[in-house]
Amino acid sequence: MSTALSYAKSAERPAAEFWLFDDDGTLIDLSTGSPTFSFKIGHLGSAAVLTKTSGIAGAAGAGTEPDGTPNCVVTWTTGELNLTPGRYAWQLTINTSSLDRVFYGSITILDVIS
């Protein structure tokens, strides 16, 4: 799974919505098993410029993007995306029942007009 995200520097909305699928193609039910989440932004092989472990919610989810219900939603707080404009990688790690699932994509942080 690879999803490209794009946000204005220091944006707080919209939340990032994901439809995450298991190896067999079924939507992963993230409403059970007490999952823990980690969302990182940075460059692969380097330290993260942002590590987020709160404001991430799992759900059962349904359907597919854009009409379904996402099974993972990352919400932003004030200043979290106040990053140097450019292209980064994002990495979402979800641990359920001692099983890590790692998903990747790209995120572009856009400068704002002052």
Word description of this protein:
It is a single chain. The chain has no helices and eight strands. By secondary structure, it is mostly beta strands. A hairpin with a 5-residue loop joins strand 3 (36-42) and strand 4 (48-52). It is globular. The model has no long low-confidence stretch (mean pLDDT 93).
Top keywords for this entry?
single chain; mainly beta; three-stranded antiparallel sheet
Euclidean distance between termini CA atoms: 35 Å
In terms of per-residue confidence, which ranges show pLDDT below 50 for 5 or more consecutive residues? none
Integer average pLDDT: 93
The ordered H/E elements are: EEEEEEEE
Strand order of the largest sheet: 1-8-7-3-4
Helix content: under 10%
As a whole number of angstroms, the C-alpha radius of gyration is 14 Å
Q: In percent terms, what proportion of residues is strand? A: 35-45%
Specify the overall morphology: globular
Main sheet specs? 5 strands, mixed
Structural category: mainly beta
Number of strands: 8
Count of helix runs: 0
Topology:
Blueprint: E1 2-8, E2 16-18, E3 36-42, E4 48-52, E5 56-58, E6 72-74, E7 86-96, E8 99-110
Parallel strand pairs: 1-8
Antiparallel strand pairs: 2-6, 3-4, 3-7, 5-6, 7-8
Compact description:
With 114 residues, the chain is mainly β. The chain is 0% helix and 45% strand. The strands form 2 sheets. A 5-stranded mixed β-sheet has the order 1-8-7-3-4, with no helix packed on it. Strands 2-6-5 form a 3-stranded antiparallel β-sheet, with no helix packed on it.
